[in-house]
Amino acid sequence: MLGFEIEKTCGSARLGKLRTAHGVVETPAFMPVGTAATVKAMFPESVAETGAQILLGNTYHLMLRPGADIIERLGGLHKFMNWDKPILTDSGGFQVMSLSKLRTITEEGVEFRSHFDGHLCKLSAEISIGIQHQLDSNITMCFDECPPYPADRRYVANSTRRSMRWAKRSKDAFIDRDGYGIFGIVQGGVHVDLREESCHALTDIGFDGYALGGLAVGEGQELMFDTISATTPHLPQDRPRYLMGVGRPSDIVGAVLRGVDMFDCVMPTRSGRTAQAFTRHGTLNLRNACHKDDPSPLDSECRCPACRNYSRAYLHHLVRTKEILGVMLLTWHNLTYYQDLMRSIRQAIKDGTFEEFARGEFS
Hints:
Elements lengths: L2 E8 L2 E8 L2 E5 L1 E3 L1 E2 L9 H6 L5 E4 H6 L3 H6 L3 H5 L5 E4 L2 H7 L3 E3 L3 E5 L6 E5 H11 L3 E3 L11 H21 L7 E6 L5 H14 L3 E4 L8 H11 L9 E3 L5 H9 L4 E3 L2 H7 L2 E4 L2 E4 L19 H5 L2 H9 L3 H28 L2 H9 L1
Parallel strand pairs: 4-15, 5-6, 6-7, 7-11, 11-12, 12-13, 13-14, 14-15
Antiparallel strand pairs: 1-2, 2-3, 8-9, 9-10, 16-17
Helix pairs in contact: 6-7, 7-8, 10-15, 11-14, 13-14, 14-15
């Protein structure tokens, strides 16, 4: 069982604390993505220095390499990757749908070919929950299907209802213990009635938290926000809400305005590997020649090593020469930017000024 309390609200935005066996997470929170038991180009200690309080691990990738049995024998994912703070693991369902070209979906689960070596694998609600237990994940995600966008309404409806049946099996398979919990995942595409139906099905089952899945898959920000606005009123007020796979800073601020507490996305780390830097004055492309002899930091208000110790000119040089240090520094900077954004969001909710903050930052 996880503990969650809301300390302050500002409109629909919520300031809270999520208590797990591996520590407390202040919400709204952003989770860096550690797909294969590592946040790319970062030491775990460095990730913690950015202010991150919780990481996301990937069931699909870890079950294939190195294998859940190995991680369990070596003491669980926290010990394996040297991260003593909370970990959330996704169920593997999204990767099965997005990475495997050869898959068969039935009521029982999914059969698919590994995108690494082509061998036949199976995932079901029971298998996914069992793997996440072996990993010692603090927050287990129920097994679901993420329908593509756009998709035929009938397909989305059938997929959503099957995912709700999988959610019940996931909850039944979960082994409850203090400081651990399982989240249900709301599906329904961009169809408001299906989202509401999904919310009611999940709350009838009863979960420690509720995620909004199937968004940020091509529908655009406005439609995503409309869907969030139509969904969160149907979720329990006393449980955390997690918007999966989101996103850009403006997406996060807009979702917090609509009552969301938790986020994850590869954007800050992937952007670090593609020479993009998020700053308080806009996004920079360090490949651009305008940075070639610029002695200024990426962001004069940032506390990360890239900004404290190096110039834009040096970072441009590292990018142009494809030096690994450039990827490391830009990733560290982007993760720091995201955590500073979350800290500012939490402070604004505490101060009762979040709506003004949101208008000022991303109007």
